[in-house]
Fold:
Amino acid sequence: MQAGFWVLEGIDGCGKSTQAKLLCQTLKAAGRRPLHLREPGSTALGEGLRRLLLEPGRSDWDARAEALVFFAARRELLVKEIRPALAAGRDVVCERFTGSTYAYQGQDSAAEAAWILDLDRLVVGDDQPHLHLILDLNPEESFARVGREAPKDAFETRGVAFQQKVREAYLRFAHEKGSTAAVLKVGGRSIEDIAQEVGEAVERARP
Ligand code: ADP
Ligand code: TYD
Structure:
C-alpha cells in the first residue's frame, strides 16, 4: 500500500495534537514510518512565520495578507517536508492545512472562502491530502478543556463566538472537499474511541 497524507483539522483544543500523536503510534505499530508535522511550523521559515502570526496582541492584518502568510508557510512545508516524505514511502500526519485558512481567514464571506480555495489550487495543486479529518467539537467544550488560564495566542483570544464561526466554516470546507474530507463528532467521547475512528477512516482512504 502507498503512503498517505493525513490532515487533522478543527477548532483550537478539539484534540488535533492528541489524535495526531495516537495516529502516528498506530501507524508505527503497523510498520509504517509516519512524519508528524504541524502548521504553521515544522520548517525554519514556518516556525518564524508562526511566531509572527500567533504573537498575542499583534495588530489586525488584512485577512488576505494573513492568508498569504499561512500559505507561504504551507508551501515551504509541502516542498521541504511533505513531498520528500511521501516520495520516500512515509505517511505524513499534519495538524492543520488549507482547512484552517478556509475556516479562520475565510469564514466571513463566500467570496473570501472561494479566494482561499483558488489559492489552494495554485499553491497546493495536485499535492492534496488523501484525507482531511475534521474533529467537530462545540467551542464551549473545548474552552472548558483548555482552561481559561492557559496561554492564549492571537486567535484563541477571540473567544467562543469566533470559534463557533470557525466550526461552521469547517463544515462548509468538508462539503467543498467531498470524499477527501470526513467530519468526526468528538464531543463527550473518549480519546481512545476517537483514535479508533481516526485510524479506520485513514485506512479506508489510503491510496
Ligand atoms: P488541539 O491540538 O486541537 O489544540 P489537544 O490535542 O492539545 O487539542 O487537546 C486539548 C486538550 O484537550 C488537552 O488537554 C487534551 O488532553 C484534551 N483532550 C483531547 N481529547 C480529549 C477528549 N476526547 N476528551 C477530553 N479531553 C480531551
Ligand atoms: P495552534 O496552537 O497550532 O493550534 P491549536 O490551538 O488548535 O493547538 O495555533 C495555530 C493557530 O493559527 C490557531 O488558532 C489557528 C490559526 N491558523 C489560522 O488562522 N489559519 C491557518 O491557515 C492556520 C494553519 C492556523
User: Anything to note?
Assistant: The mean pLDDT is 95. The CA atoms of residues 3 and 87 lie 8 Å apart. The beta strands are 5-9, 35-38, 92-95, 131-136, 181-185. The two ends are 7 Å apart (CA to CA).
